[in-house]
Amino acid sequence: TGLLGLEIHQDDGHRFGTREAIAKIIKVLSSKIKIKGGDPIDYGVPYAHLKRVRVHDRERTLIYPNSKYLDNATSLLGLEESKASMTQSTASVKDDMFTTEPCDPQESVVYRSALGSLLFYRLDVPDGQFEINTLAQVLRAPTMGAMAALQRLVRYLVGTKDRAIELKRPV
Fold it and tell me: Which of 31, 62, 131, 132 could, after both became Cys, cross-link 55 (CB 3.0–4.6 A)?
């Protein structure tokens, strides 16, 4: 036969596995519930769902943050050609977030827009969640120090965007 995976949500679902296994389960389920939709997802083929990119194989599921949110923040901040940072932030950058002068109105719009994109991106980036949440504390009145911390964080995230959360299948 073959392995089969079903990912069921409140109003939709995804199926992946061998064509034979999917055909069998669809036949059984179709007798009980109404099923509509497209083709099954093949193993190893990435697909976007719920602001994430997922890749299933026989042993695991990889969940990547959707890079469009990071790409948007990178573009808004003008960091497309910047080198990646090796760390998310430093203590001095965090201290400056609350003590430096406020951003001008135009910079504040950029800050809020870029951080808004990262709020979606952070769902699957455990090593950036704390910093993103900290930067959100000054969303109402961003400072130049917060802007510097945001730029550093985006440069770090650009360098780690190929990382995924791995969910292994039970043995």
Answer: 62
